[in-house]
Request: fold
Amino acid sequence: MCVDIHVYLVELHVDSFTKLKSKLTMGFLRRVFWIRNTKWQEKVFFLAVVLVVFVTSMINIQPQLFVSHLEPKLTLHNMFAKKEYVTVQAREGFSFTEKYHSTKLNESSFCLDYSYPGTRTDFTVGFDRTENPLHPIMYFPPGVDISEEEKKRILRLLPDGFLHTKSQSDRVYQQLEHVPRTYSNNSEIKVVYIWHLEQWKNVPTGLEFFKHCKVNRCSLTHDRAAEKTADAIVFANSGHLPKSPPFQKSSDKQIAILNINESPDRSWSMKKYNNFFNWTNTYRVDSTIYDPYFKIGRECWNPPDVPKSGRNYAEGRTKKVAWMVSNCHIVKSGRLEYARELGKHIQVDIYGNCGTLSCPASKHRECVEMTRRDYKFYLSFENHKCHDYFTEKVMNAYDAELIPIVLGARKEDYAQVLPKHSYIHVEDFSSPKELGEYLNLLDKNDTLYNEYFKWKETGDKIIDDLNWCRVCTLLHETSLPVMWYEDIQQWWKPEGVCNGAKNWN
Reply:
C-alpha cells in the first residue's frame, strides 16, 4: 500500500512537473509566434535579438556578403585599356632606347620606363617568406628541348624562386615585353573563360578584349559551355567560389587562374582547392602574374609629361586632412579610431557614412576637384592591414595631387611601389599626436610641403599594367614550366600575412 502511495505521489509530481513544463513551453511559444496577443514592445525586442544574432554570426562566417554592400563593388580592373599605341619617334630633348616597335608583329612595345631608379626602393626588401616558402610545385615539361639560356628567359617571367624577398622587380615589364619564340600572328587563339560572371555585359568578349596587346591571339568569353574547352579559366575573387571546385578540369593543359583583389581577411576559405589552381593573379608581388591596383611608371611610347618646377601645391588650400569612407565597422585595421584620434591634433574632415560630411559617389569627379582645391592631405587608410595590400585609395590621393597618409601594408611594401618621399606612413610616427604635429608643420611650411611633389618632375605617373595582355602572353608560352599550388589556402593566407590593428614593426 505504501509503495502504491509512493508511486502515486511520484507520478503526481512528475505529472505536475510535466504540466508546468508544458505550460511554460507553450507560453513561450505563444509569445514567440504570437499565438496570443503579445505586447508590441516584446515583439520588437525579440525580433531585434534574432536579427543581431543572425547578422553577427553571418559576419563572422561570410563577412564579404556584408562588406560588398558597404563599399563600392570591386570588379576585375584593367579590363580594357583605352589607348592607341603608335610607333615611337624620338623627340627633341628626349633620348629613347632601341626597343620600341616590333616590326615582326607590327605592334608597339610596352615599356614601363624606370630611367630614375633612385625614385623607387629595391625589391629585395619586403615580405620575408624565407621561413615559410609558399611557392607552387613547378617543373619544366620532361622531354622538351629547351636551352639553359631559354630557361633563364622564361623564369624571368615568374617570381624569383617564388619568394618575394629575392625578386629584383615585379616582372610587369618582362611579361609585357615577352614574345614567345613559337608565337606569330597565325598562332592558335587561346580562349580565356571568366567563370560565373556572365553578367559582365560591359566587358568586350572575343578578340576585341585583347586587340591592343602585343601578344593578342586570345579570346574572352563568359559562356559556361567553355568550361570544358577553354585554355584558361579565371576565378575572380574567392567570394565567388563554391566551397569545392565547381568542375574537374578537362585536361592537365587547362590553366586555372585565381584572380583576387580583396585582402585575405575578406576571402573565403579555399581549403578544398589544393592542387587545383595553376596560376595566381593578385595584388601580391609573389603572384604568378602580379596585378596591382595601379602602377607608377612612364610610357616609353610617349615622352614624359613633366610639370614645370617651382609650382606651389599648397597655394589656395586652406583645409588640412580629408577622408572619404563608407565602411565604418567591418574592418580590422583600426583606421577609424586612428583617424578620430588624429583629429584631436589637426583638422580631419571625414566624408561619407563614417563622418559628418557628405560628397556622394555619383559626383566622384566633383569630389576629387573639391579635395584638390581645398585640402593638403588625404587619409589613404585600408580596411585591413595585410602584406602588399594597398588599393585605389592611394591612387585617389595622387589623382587629386594631395599627400597620401597611408595605413595598411608594411612600410617596405609601399616603398617598393610608390615614389620616394611622395607619401607619409603612419608607422613612421609613435602616435597620432606626433603625426598631427608633423602635418601641422608641413601645413605652415610650403617649402617642406612641396618636397612631397618633387617626384612628379621625373615624369612618373599612374599607368595601366595591362594585366590581361600578360595573361595572354603566358598562355602562349609553350616552354613555361608546369606549375600548380599544392595548398592555395596556405599560400594566400599564411600566419602573419595580416596584422589586425597592430603596428608591423
Notes: Confidence is low (pLDDT under 50) at residues 1-12, 60-108. The chain has 13 helices and 16 strands. The radius of gyration is 29 Å. The CA atoms of residues 248 and 320 lie 55 Å apart.
